[in-house]
């Protein structure tokens, strides 16, 4: 039978061909799973049920780290480095400011305005490139009217 003790109770499922190896041991430790090998057993085989369970835990972990990586990639590509707000026309910055009801000091210069817009821009959680594209489009269509 399976060599694992789950919360102190010996698993009664028949053992599969999977061995309780170092990799599984590591996952169990990392995930703080309540599995221990029964000290009284001579073989280290675990049942399909526990093998799958531990594999799922490991996959979740991989998925998570992959998601984190993707998340970071997105952040980097949407970084303000992509857009130099000082290069945008002042009218556009003013429109942006008005559009998002940003507060600026009266009579602030373009650099300050660009800074405010850039800061707001980095905060918004939606796809920033889409917003900017949409925003530029709106400005253009407003102008042509
Ligand atoms: Zn088991």
UniProtKB/TrEMBL annotation:
It comes from the Eukaryota. Residues 88-140 form the Histone deacetylase complex subunit SAP30 Sin3 binding domain. The keyword Methyltransferase does not apply. InterPro entries: His_deAcase_SAP30/SAP30L (IPR024145), SAP30_C_sf (IPR038291), SAP30_Sin3-bd (IPR025718), SAP30_zn-finger (IPR025717). This is Histone deacetylase complex subunit SAP30 Sin3 binding domain-containing protein. GO terms for biological process: regulation of DNA-templated transcription. Residues 58-80 are annotated as: Disordered. GO terms for cellular component: histone deacetylase complex. One of its GO terms (molecular function) is DNA binding. Belongs to the SAP30 family. Its main location: nucleus. The gene is 20196670. Keywords: DNA-binding, Metal-binding, Nucleus, Repressor, Transcription, Transcription regulation, Zinc, Zinc-finger. Residues 1-66 form the Histone deacetylase complex subunit SAP30 zinc-finger domain. It is found in: Nucleus.
């Amino acid at each position: 039978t399976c060599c694992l003790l789950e919360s102190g109770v010996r698993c009664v499922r028949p053992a599969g061909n999977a061995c309780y190896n170092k990799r599984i041991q590591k996952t169990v430790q990392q995930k703080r799973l309540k599995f221990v090998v029964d000290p009284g057993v001579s073989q280290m085989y675990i049942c399909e049920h526990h093998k799958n369970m531990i594999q799922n835990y490991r996959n979740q972990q991989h998925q998570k780290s992959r998601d984190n990586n993707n998340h970071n990639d997105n952040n980097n590509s949407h970084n303000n480095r992509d857009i130099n707000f000082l290069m945008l026309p002042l009218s556009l910055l003013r429109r942006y400011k008005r559009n998002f009801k940003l507060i600026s000091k009266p009579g602030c210069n373009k650099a300050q305005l660009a800074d405010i817009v850039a800061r707001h821009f980095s905060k918004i959680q939606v796809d920033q490139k889409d917003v900017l594209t949409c925003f530029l489009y709106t400005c253009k269509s407003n102008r042509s009217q």
